[in-house]
Write a structure and sequence with these properties.
The protein has helices at 10-13, 15-18, 23-41, 45-65, 69-81, 90-100, 107-110, 114-123, 140-149. By secondary structure, the chain is an all-alpha fold. It has 2 domains: 20-67; 84-153, no CATH class. Helix 4 runs antiparallel to helix 5 (69-81). The protein starts with 9 loop residues before the first helix and ends with a helix. The relative contact order is 0.09.
Length: 153
């Protein structure tokens, strides 16, 4: 009795492709997942920031792949936007880590003027209807003070 050879379709061998996810996308998902976990596990602030930068790069590539550059541009802006948010001297460590990666640390390096940066900081909490770390927002005076003190504007 002979057994006829059956061939499986390629989509059966690569189940992710059957739902529209390419191997490149799957690799990016795994990279983002690993870097996210490593960011949370590292206790050293600088190491955590460097791994977080890799995580952000992975997301930037993924968002570009999905043709959503507005999302990753916002994430890039948050790098410089996080500087005024650092309490105590944390903002200096964040700035140094971003500079070590040649990442933008000022509004000018992001390619936006100071007024646009301050408007973004003071209105960001209104963009989506959900809770954010910005709570009820940041006053313009507080945004100017923090951004000036940290050198973002």
């Amino acid at each position: 009795m002979s057994v006829a050879a059956t061939s499986l379709p390629v989509t059966a061998l690569l189940p992710l492709q059957s739902v529209g996810i390419t191997p490149l996308e799957a690799s990016l998902f795994v990279f983002v997942l690993i870097t996210a976990v490593l960011t949370a596990l590292f206790r050293d602030v600088l190491a955590s920031i460097v791994v977080f930068a890799a995580y952000s790069l992975g997301l930037a590539v993924l968002y570009t792949f999905y043709r959503a550059p507005d999302v990753w541009l916002t994430a890039a802006a948050l790098g410089a936007g996080a500087l005024p948010a650092g309490e105590g001297g944390e903002w200096a460590a964040i700035r140094e880590a971003l500079e070590a990666l040649d990442a933008p640390t000022t509004a000018d390096e992001l390619g936006i003027d100071d007024d646009t940066f301050l408007e973004a900081v003071t209105t960001a909490h209104t963009i989506r209807d959900r809770y954010t770390i910005l709570g009820d927002g940041v006053s313009e005076d507080a945004a100017i003070e923090a951004a000036t003190f940290t050198g973002v504007v």
